């Protein structure tokens, strides 16, 4: 299948281009970007012109930041194209619902991707937790924003999500591995006094069985980076670390190779998109984004030291 990649920035070059190149399902037929391009691939800077000139490209993969993404997605769907969205699927929940309605009407596939759900041990963790009684779940997602988002002004602007840009990855895993749904019960959001989005957040969730569920997101972490989810159950403690790449149960390595066919998060996403297009289906799960929206609705705001790059 031919695919056009839109927004040639960090994630497009780091992950999408190699995943497409390594896939038997896909061929990168065009890029659309104001500044970026991929060597040897037809490059456009005008999305409308590309859609008109290349009716043979049936699939568009959008790697833009969340705020500009809706207009591109809506235009692609109206032009009858199948659309793959980077995470988070939009700047607001309403935008995402509107895209779902449009995709249904136009009979095209819409895929709201959550790359962290494709990390190696996430399916194994889901399987292990499926018949356990949860007592406590603790998310610790602490990374250095200067290391992972250098020069990205949009993450500090409204709709850029701040620390929820990585934090939503943790929530995408939690909402996949927990057998029972949770909802936010309280939050503290820490905004640098010179920024529009939080640099840290503490979240608490209500669980139907009363398990204690919390998340600690922080972008001020220097040294070791921590992307860990710890789930304490009546039958032992599962720890998913390195963003879902490693799993232990009571300290012993767990999860087998068979739990994770294909290699890598983005190859799995593109394989899933190929299946959705073939099946005429869509996959839009907004649960991770709902929790983030709830945190902005319910969160207590604290002002912390200004952030300078
Ligand atoms: P980025 O490099 O800052 O932006 C991607 C590209 O989008 C830019 O190079 C730019 O290309 C285009 N763009 C930016 N603002 C635009 C606007 N207002 N209108 C039109 N085009 C615009 O961001 P990124 O890190 O790749 O992240 C993009 C998305 O991927 C985000 O939603 C992020 O959460 C997600 N993601 C990122 C990572 C990561 O490690 N960085 C990992 C997983 C997912 P042109 O200037 O050439 O048009």
Automatic annotation (TrEMBL):
Protein name as catalogued: L-arabinose 1-dehydrogenase
Pfam families linked: GFO_IDH_MocA
GO molecular function: L-arabinose 1-dehydrogenase (NAD+) activity; nucleotide binding
Enzyme class of the recorded protein, top EC level: oxidoreductase
Species the sequence originates in: Salipiger mucosus DSM 16094
Residue stretches making up the Gfo/Idh/MocA-like oxidoreductase N-terminal domain: 3-110
UniProt-listed Gene3D superfamilies: Dihydrodipicolinate Reductase, domain 2 (3.30.360.10), NAD(P)-binding Rossmann-like Domain (3.40.50.720)
Coiled coil stretches, renumbered: none
InterPro entries documented for this protein: Gfo/Idh/MocA-like_OxRdtase_N, Gfo/Idh/MocA_oxidrdct_glycsds, NAD(P)-bd_dom_sf
Keyword annotations: Oxidoreductase
Record EC number: 1.1.1.46
